[in-house]
Amino acid sequence: MNNRHLLSRRDFLTRAALSGVAAALWHRDASAASSGGKFSPPIPVFSKLYQELKLNFDQAAELTAEAGLDGVDCPVRPKGEIEPERAADEMPRYAEALRKRKLDMLLITTGISSVASPHAETVLRTAKKLGIRYYRLGFSTNTKQKLAGVSLPEIKAQLRELAALNKQLGLTGVIQNHSPSGRSTYVGGDLNEMYEIVKDFNPGEIGVAFDLCHALIVHGDDWTARFDQLKPHIKVAYVKDVKRPRQLTPFGEGEFSKTDYFKRLKQMNLTAPLSMHIEYEWHPKGQATTREAMLKMLQQNLRVLKGWLAAA
Which CATH class is domain 43-311? Predict the structure, then answer.
């Protein structure tokens, strides 16, 4: 037998063996994620917070790095950190400022509710170019009367068109469950309704951003049954601690530590970003917000969150 051919055959067998080892290691790591292995999805901050200090992109990236976070969940929506009409220019600039500090724009939060939403395709194509995988859909509040049956088929029709675009681009649009506010309620805020909306969609195209804070407010301790029903559709998770009936708190002062939320996410092998939301009054009323105070608050909440992940 020709030695060249023999070497080629040996090379083939070696490569095949290495592929088998790689596959075994992948399965081992996936199993470890749900059976005692380290649970450490990337943690961005919902950077709507930074608008309080009017930070530019470099300042925002620097603060994110100092806080020990992995990046941002950037609001690309009207009155957000980035206005949709400026997305093609400003999203890459923000992403570059983050990457200089070894961080990423891990998620975006949009006002997109259909392919006809202003600048929707530009925002999503820019996200694709930047390697962003997930974006939050921007359903506005609706009165309960509008949500009662009539609007759901329309919402699902809009989602079908978005699902087709998401499939083309390789993106996942996620719907957040949000509790009622004032006289209005949100699409999918009731998790039974959320299931009806998403159940027929490919979760890789239209999924759920599960928000335990709002699930506790709406469903109380029955949130677990809804979580289990939605599990195949949950792609992203949000974290903001709460005391019922609806008092948002610093991490560790609410009810999250009494739940098995993070254990459930670990068992799902969740690797998508775990978005950290700061939506309580984190600085003394009447006092100006400062960068130093914001940094200290972010570091403290992140320590608590990492403790929850370690204990999962």
Answer: alpha beta
